[in-house]
Write a structure and sequence with these properties.
The protein is α/β, with parallel strands linked by helices and about 230 residues long. The chain has a single domain, classed as 3-Layer(aba) Sandwich (Rossmann fold), CATH 3.40.50.300. Helix content is about 35%, strand content about 25%. A six-stranded mixed β-sheet has the order 5-6-7-3-8-9, sandwiched between helices. The protein has a three-stranded antiparallel β-sheet with strand order 2-1-4, covered by helices on one side. α3 crosses α4. The longest helix has 18 residues.
């Protein structure tokens, strides 16, 4: 099990952002964490990354406790936040080179990786343009390239298609499937967009008010709603 959480809770004052969450993500799957904004998805992700500490409960990510061993988790986990940030005056290639160095990847190794991932995400021809000239969709592609350069076991993607046109979103979803199929990567995809989760995820967990209220394959969850499709 690449992600395992038991009884996870996170409170901000009187507000329970995550409330008794049990979560399992199996190696090699695309797991969709589905729910409306404010349901606790991003807080859950921050706990998994060791960026915030749970109020109670137990969690293991790639075999480590992210609160006590955050650096070990970060070495094996790639993260694409909803609002990805880059150095706008640097080119895509320069941003990726800087990120590779931050992750301790030698230049002799990172050069080949960077060329490969730029091609994979469709940015090879614009790799030497400043990132400030990039559209939202191009920045998201670069964010996925950022994840791929690291070659993680687990990729956590938080609302990766928000603000992107339908064609661009479809291309991002295709990339996510290739991350699993071609690289053997596990993907945790957080989204409020039901049709996108249905398209690419092996299993789905539905969050509501900090709780996991349903879980299963898309077909299993659809069957529970009498074949009418998933609903929040």
């Amino acid at each position: 099990m690449i992600v395992e959480a038991r009884g996870l809770r996170k409170a901000y004052g009187p507000v329970q952002a995550v409330d008794g969450l049990d979560l399992e993500v199996q190696e090699g799957e695309i797991y969709g964490l589905l729910g409306p904004n404010g349901s606790g998805k991003t807080t859950t992700i921050l706990i998994l990354l060791g960026l915030t500490e749970p109020s109670s409960g137990e969690v293991r990510v790639v075999g480590y406790n992210p609160t006590r061993e955050p650096l070990k988790v970060k070495r094996q986990v790639g993260y694409l936040p909803e609002h990805v940030g880059f150095y706008d005056d640097l080119t895509a290639r320069e941003n990726l080179r800087y990120i590779a160095r931050l992750n301790g990847i030698p230049d002799r190794d990172s050069k080949k990786r960077i060329e490969e991932v730029l091609k994979q995400v469709g940015l090879a021809e614009v790799a030497d343009r400043p990132v400030r000239t990039y559209s939202r969709g191009m920045r998201q592609r670069l964010g996925i390239a950022d994840v791929l350069v690291k070659q993680p076991r687990l990729a956590i993607l938080d609302e990766p298609t928000t603000g992107i046109d339908p064609e661009g979103a479809s291309q991002i979803l295709d990339m996510i499937v290739r991350m699993r199929d071609e690289r053997g990567m596990t993907v945790l995809l957080s989204s409020h967009l039901l049709h996108q989760v249905q398209r690419v995820c092996d299993r789905v967990g539905i969050m509501h008010r900090g709780k996991l209220v349903a879980e299963g394959t898309v077909d299993e969850l659809s069957a529970k709603t009498s074949g009418e499709g998933l609903e929040f």
